[in-house]
């Protein structure tokens, strides 16, 4: 039989993710595994040689952890899965103090509205009062914010603050289901406020149409019970994390990219923070953001719903949650795993001798590599208008498209040389150093990375960046409808 080993257990099994065992019962399989990997004995069994409680054994999706199944013969084609229980942490108390819960009352309509919650043993009237007493700040009213805000409102969270600085664009409607065609060009927070009002008029909504920065974040989130991070960029993530640590507010984190998403709870009662897991962001431009890399439409629905669910569990003080853990869901292959996050002893923000004691003193732009461009040798660039003029002038110019093949399939730039970023330094001979060369990508960030990469590789020709990328240029050069296919 083939035994699949969950990622968290692999270090005890020679880092294998699956092991072929020539036995056909669970009992023999376990004996075989512990013989072959003696290290695994201590993780599988307690001192009385009993299988530890958190170890689970599944055969074709059926739980066969109970030893009564261990002598049953398993057909050869069945898959056996060895994994630790999702459980781990002990359930916590509600983060809403009792005085605040006791100050809450319901009218008849609310009793009817929340009837399904009141029926649940783990929620009941007490729990529903906690939900109404809760004050939750949601940063980002986009893809993740859409399900988070709507479920919090439907569940009856008494005060919801929504913070965003953006307006609704057509491309947002693919995944940001809180907004509709009628909301185009409106501030996202205005659209979100209308939706919340439509769901439940009893909710106090605070809509803040601002961009969070180091000098305003503390006053925006201080006094809230939970902050939910629904943003899509590293600068915001670190800023939110640090402010939550300094204001002592638990943070429900969510992130999506293409088909994969992550959820976690940071900074709960002194637990690990986002920086403990990711001390530094990747180099600017190296990882496309969600807006550049894309994401399948329902993915934020899945991840955002889990964020809302985790927030409600914190409010209610029920179940086991993702405190100090990172849930990773791959929606393409329907797999998920939970990584345990340890508090980093030298974390820059959440330890006793932390470097960062005020967000105002930390340079988030610099930390996330967003200022790099100005600090090094400046990179010259064309605005879309300038490049259009230059192309029309007929003066020779080389255009290098550094986008990925699937991005080029959406919009092809005429007469461009195509070289993905990873191949640039070894293919630099294909460029003519005597001729001006313009680098293009979707948003004008990866093209800057391309120019820096070539400089490092010793390329000496004149290089220019297309400012704002093809997104900024598409209306100028491809004004007719249908060019985008
Ligand atoms: Zn930390």
| N-to-C span | 48 Å
Largest sheet: 8 strands, mixed
Bound small molecules, by name, code or SMILES, are: zinc ion
Count of separate structural domains:
3
Q: What is the total tally of β strands?
A: 18
Q: What's the Cα radius of gyration? A: 26 Å
Description of the structure:
The chain has 485 residues and is of the alpha/beta class. It has 3 domains: 2-84, Beta-grasp domain (Ubiquitin-like (UB roll)), CATH 3.10.20; 98-367, Rossmann fold (3-Layer(aba) Sandwich); 376-477, Rhodanese-like domain (Oxidized Rhodanese, domain 1). 31% of the residues lie in helices and 17% in strands. It is built from 19 helices and 18 strands. It has helices at 26-36, 40-44, 98-102, 108-113, 115-118, 124-133, 145-155, 188-199, 217-221, 234-247, 274-277, 290-293, 299-316, 364-367, 372-375, 384-393, 405-408, 446-456, 469-477, and strands at 2-5, 18-20, 55-59, 62-63, 79-84, 135-139, 159-163, 204-208, 226-229, 251-257, 260-266, 325-330, 335-340, 380-382, 398-401, 417-418, 437-440, 463-466. The strands form 3 sheets. Strands 8-7-6-9-10-11-12-13 form an 8-stranded mixed beta sheet, with helices on both faces. It has a 5-stranded mixed beta sheet with strand order 2-1-5-3-4, with no helix packed on it. β12 and β13 (335-340) form a beta hairpin. α7 packs parallel to α8 and α7 runs parallel beside α13. Mean pLDDT is 88; it is low at 86-91 and 480-485. The structure holds zinc ion (ZN). Residues 272-273, 275-276, 344, 347, 349-350 line the site of zinc ion.
């Amino acid at each position: 039989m083939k035994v699949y080993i969950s990622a968290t257990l692999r270090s005890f099994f020679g880092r294998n993710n699956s092991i072929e065992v020539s036995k056909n019962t669970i009992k023999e399989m376990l004996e075989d595994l512990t013989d072959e990997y003696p290290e695994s004995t201590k993780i599988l069994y307690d001192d009385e040689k009993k299988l530890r409680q958190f170890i689970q054994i599944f055969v074709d999706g059926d739980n066969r952890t109970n030893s009564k199944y261990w002598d049953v013969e398993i057909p050869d084609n069945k898959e056996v899965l060895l994994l630790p229980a999702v459980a781990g942490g002990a359930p916590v108390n509600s983060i809403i103090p009792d005085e605040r819960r006791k100050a809450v009352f319901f009218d008849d309509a609310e009793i009817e509205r929340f009837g399904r919650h009141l029926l649940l043993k783990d929620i009941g009237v007490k729990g529903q009062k906690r939900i109404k007493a809760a004050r939750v700040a949601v940063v980002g009213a986009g893809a993740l914010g859409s399900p988070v805000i709507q479920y919090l409102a439907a569940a009856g969270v008494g005060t919801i603050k929504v913070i965003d600085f953006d307006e609704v664009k057509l491309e947002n409607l693919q995944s940001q289901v809180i907004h509709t065609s009628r909301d185009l060009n409106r501030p996202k927070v205005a659209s979100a406020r209308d939706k919340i009002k439509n769901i439940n008029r009893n909710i106090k909504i605070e809509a803040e149409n601002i961009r969070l920065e180091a000098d305003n974040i503390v006053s925006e989130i201080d006094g809230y019970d939970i902050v939910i991070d629904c943003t899509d960029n590293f600068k915001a993530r670190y800023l939110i994390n640090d402010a939550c640590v300094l204001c002592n507010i638990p943070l429900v984190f969510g992130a999506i990219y293409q088909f994969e998403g992550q959820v976690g709870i940071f900074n709960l009662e002194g637990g690990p923070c986002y920086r403990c897991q990711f001390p530094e962001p990747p180099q600017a431009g190296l990882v496309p953001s969600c807006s550049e890399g894309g994401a399948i439409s329902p993915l934020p629905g899945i991840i955002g719903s889990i964020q809302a669910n985790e927030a409600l569990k914190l409010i209610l003080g029920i179940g086991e949650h993702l405190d100090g853990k990172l849930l990773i869901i791959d929606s393409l292959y329907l797999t998920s795993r939970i990584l345990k996050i340890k508090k980093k002893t030298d974390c820059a923000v959440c330890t006793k001798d932390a470097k960062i004691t005020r967000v105002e003193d930390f340079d988030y732009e610099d930390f996330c590599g967003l200022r790099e461009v100005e600090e090094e040798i400046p990179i010259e660039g064309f605005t879309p208008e300038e490049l259009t003029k230059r192309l029309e002038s007929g003066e020779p110019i080389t255009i290098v498209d550094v986008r990925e093949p699937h991005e080029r399939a959406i919009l092809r730039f005429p007469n461009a040389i195509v070289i993905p970023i990873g191949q640039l330094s070894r293919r630099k001979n294909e460029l003519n150093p005597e001729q001006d060369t313009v680098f293009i990508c979707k948003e004008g960030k990866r093209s800057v990375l391309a120019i820096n990469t070539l400089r490092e590789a010793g390329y000496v020709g004149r290089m220019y960046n297309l400012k704002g990328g093809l997104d900024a240029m598409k209306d100028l050069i491809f004004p007719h409808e249908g060019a985008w296919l």
